[in-house]
Structure to design on (150 residues):
């Protein structure tokens, strides 16, 4: 029988391997495979096939509305009139909001991302009588997922 489990790369993985060896499973029947961490760079614009949940237009739309209202209000006093100043306010608010989001997600959020922990797949080959003991050892050492293959 083969028992598959996934772990975060942590001390609990090492403790699980040591506990398995102490329970009578030889090293040759334990296989630990580390997975590569995916390079998670987000795209600026979402496509029809993928969306990362980050919008660069939410603050831009709000600031465009606010600046348009201010531009229209002030435009009654200024030379070009309320329509032109409302459009100028909307465009400048949209550009400022877009730049705020762009800088936040590309610079600030990029620095504050925590390094993702790599996962490890642990494969244990054992006889059917040892399966329950192996599963108990893996669960007590915080295995993220388990599967048994007969």
């Amino acid at each position: 029988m083969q028992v598959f489990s996934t772990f975060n790369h942590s001390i609990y993985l090492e403790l699980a391997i040591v506990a398995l060896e102490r329970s009578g499973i030889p090293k040759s029947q334990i296989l630990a495979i580390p997975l590569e961490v995916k390079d998670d760079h987000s795209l600026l614009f979402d496509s029809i096939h993928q969306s990362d949940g980050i919008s660069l237009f939410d603050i831009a739309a709000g600031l465009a509305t606010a600046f348009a209202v201010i531009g229209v209000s002030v435009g009654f006093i200024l030379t070009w009139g309320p329509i032109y100043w409302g459009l100028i306010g909307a465009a400048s608010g949209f550009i400022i909001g877009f730049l705020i989001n762009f800088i936040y997600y590309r610079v600030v959020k990029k620095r504050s991302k925590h390094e993702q922990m790599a996962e490890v797949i642990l494969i244990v080959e054992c006889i059917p009588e040892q399966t329950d003991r192996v599963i108990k050892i893996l669960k007590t050492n915080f295995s993220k997922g388990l599967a048994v293959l007969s």
Notes: The beta strands are 2-8, 30-34, 119-125, 145-149. The longest strand covers residues 2-8.
